[in-house]
Amino acid sequence: MLFSPTGLTECLREWENLEKDYQQIQDTHRLYKQKLEEVTKLQDSSSGAISRQRKKLKELSLSLEACKENTPTPTLSPEELEAITEIRASIKEREDAFSEMEAFLPKKNGLYLSLVLGSVNVTLLNKQSKFAYKDEYEKFKLILTVILFVFSFTCRFVFSYRALDALFYFLLVWYYCTLTIRESVLISNGSRIRGWWVFHHYVSTFLSGVMLTWPEGVLYQMFRNQFISYCLYQSFVQFLQYYYQSGSLYRLRALGERHNMDLTVEGFQSWMWRGLTFLLPFLFFGHFWQFYNGITLFKMSQLPQCKEWQVMMCGCSYMVLFLGNFFTTLGVVYQKYMNNQDKPKSL
Hints:
This protein is 76% helix and 0% strand. The chain has 9 helices and no strands. It is flat. The termini are far apart. The chain is mainly alpha-helical. The longest helix has 63 residues, at 8-70. α6 (195-213) packs antiparallel against α9 (310-342).
């Protein structure tokens, strides 16, 4: 409970104490600004030093390559060849070290973040802030996945109003737009997200926006239930992926086998072979559903009554999603198969 002075003497004494606290606050804030300026200078110094070191390492690599090509191999002693190999390995290790350092230094935003946020610095400068932002991203995906599941179930089986459908499509556009922004921020802070899993959210944003603009009509009603059923299934699969991927990532991080900023994704990656292969049938079924949606829309575009441009745009979007998702997942499966083939078989 706060102290409430009653008499004048107590009020004056309280004011003196507040004056002392205020002076201390001013001193602390002055020290904070001073340290902040020092940190800014250190950031600029570190960024400049890394850039210069990178440039010199690149020149050194080119020089070593030229020396090796211009000098006949027999004239190089084994010690010299070993020294060149060691220097190349050290250069590669140093590049990885620079990437780790730059994760804690301010950097220029990419094109997308520059268009959306301008030149605002989005680099988080300590591990706690990075982890907190990553966890918030994961919670955001989980909460919106549940909301989208309930919303799509309502639109599919309870109500069938174009206004409610438009609200659902707007929620999809906002969800995917937000994901693209947050993922760009996470990439700037060291998250290793595959390029396709980011790009397919841009395609999903475009697809949801086209569905939002599709006017009420016969063709819209022909495709409506199929699209909302697909969204219902997709939300279910995304919930499964989040639930199992988050647990697997937690175990792999504890073992030191995954990066602390790795995220759950709406697909299959190499680290998921440990206990998550049961997700593959669900994923491939969803991929072929995307293919089926694309074929359905292409057939609808051939109908005489088809006047809406949205039919062809949605069909193209679904084919892009199918090709990207299917071949990315298939590539991971093939890579795992080839790795197993290369391992020596025990007796």
